Known about the structure:
Blueprint (H helix, E strand, L loop, with lengths): L5 E6 H4 L5 E3 L11 H15 L12 E10 L5 E6 L1 H16 L4 H8 L3 E2 L10 E2 L1 E2 L2 H12 L5 H5 L7 H18 L3 H14 E8 L2 H11 L8 H11 L3 H18 L1 H16 L7 H9 L5 H21 L8 H11 L8 H10 L4 H20 L4 H16 L15 H11 L7 H15 L12 E4 L10 H5 L3 H7 L6 E4 L12 H9 L9 H7 L6 H18 L3
Parallel strand pairs: 2-4, 2-7, 3-8
Antiparallel strand pairs: 1-8, 3-4, 5-6, 9-10
Amino acid sequence: MPATIEGNEYPVMKIFSNDFAFSIPRYQRPYAWTTEHAGELLDDFLSFMGDDDGPIEELDPYFLGSVVLIKTKNIPASEIVDGQQRLTTLAILLAALRATANDKKFAEDLTEFLYAKGNLVSGIPEKYRLTLRERDADFFREHVQASEDLSRLEKMDPARLSDSRQRIQASARLFLEKLRSLGEKQRLRLAWFITRRCYMVVVSTPDLNSAYRIFSVLNDRGLDLSHTDILKAEIIGNIPQEQQDKYTQKWEDQEERLGRDRFAELFAHIRMIRRKAKLRDTILKEFREHVKPAADPQAFIDTTMLPLADALDLIKTETYQSTHRAQEINGLFRWLNQIDNFDWVPPAILYLSRHNDDDRSLLAFFTDLERLAAGLMIRRANINERIERYARLLTAIENNENLYTPNSPLQLTEEERRGIVSTLDGDIYQTSRIRLYVLLRLDHALSEGSASYNYRVVTVEHVLPQNPPPNSQWLRWFPVPEQREQYVHRLCNLVLLSRSKNSQAQNYDFEEKKKRYFNTREGVSPFVLTTQVLQKEEWTPAILEKRQHELLGKLKKVWRL
């Protein structure tokens, strides 16, 4: 039965009332709004409120956006899926308004929006309108919601606070500073405006999956909730309570080390390792069905997520360490990271996680993986072919098969090698997505591995121009158009430049082009391919034919074609 979805518009005074008891689940981001975000919100309020003394009800309403909740109808408990940054900032602002109030009744009334006071005689506890994530919940209650003057929060040393608490303190300090510059009457009017004329649309559903789908449709800004956040809630939630803090810390350490985007990418690779097929449903559904992390969550984190996260980090940062061969292995990571797809990553991280201490095996494997990934890219193999190939490779790795027999999925077939050579011997410039990779790989081989390519810009340029001007030297060397077309886009006629192209220089005659375009200010090109051209006296069909044979032979040797 589909989950019931409800959506209603409420003023802030209704948001922070007994109708809702907001909580931020552990999978959510910590408080992350900067003083720029908080200051912009307060400035908006003051601007919309204006300086008039007319009735608040006559002011235009201010829309604060939507909030997505997991909530059962008629029950206050409300788990926030989207909107926690705005709700937290609003609570800090209301607390700052209370702290700067001179009128005791004004301050007491503002407290009602932060928590409902308990009754010692009746044994009724205080009910806080908003509960932050477990790590910050007590801090927020003590120093924001229950602190009447915010003085202890204001005086704290930020260096002793976590990032989220620093931001809470920074927002509070900003609000206190701005509100103290206002008169009491203006602060009272601001409180009226926020609580009575500022509105939020609350969308609620009792189901986590439908709440996430709603969030995905509504949210086009801010700090998005990702599939890893949902999985975190499910996986950590299935760990015994006494172990949850320990495993939450492990999870968040990896997320911080990899970064949010790369951490989400890791889970896509884990899905591929287990599923070995193209994604056919949502990643959440396939992860649950094929990885099944909630079945044994500690084992998933310790034996799957952590080692694969380590492997992904080493590959992406190119920082593998070993007493031998580390430089060569990191060099292969560097080439793989320039491949125009990421389909090679699952077998890469799986193999590295299993053979981290065996640098000899790693060098052999990644030499052949770069050969395979480059070959598939040069042949322009489509995504279905790539995924099928890497799926077979994943199976071979898991089964400890010999990866170096001719029929191994790691090795190029004879037909594939012929196709790669045919492409490399053709008009390679015309295939824009492979030409730079091939030429850099070729240049590196020509330098015997000594060249490095830490240039902001690297471009591919023709020696013989595509459209040589009339009466130029080029037309004396290549008088027939068909002859020019035979060479102009091939390896033999292409060089690398460490700067952007210059359209005016591209048609210079050969000597002028060498002097003014192919040379650097220091007089020496950083690329072997370009230096070879600078050493030539002329650029004729015979020279190009010989050069094509030599360069193609070098690539055949690099990739064992």
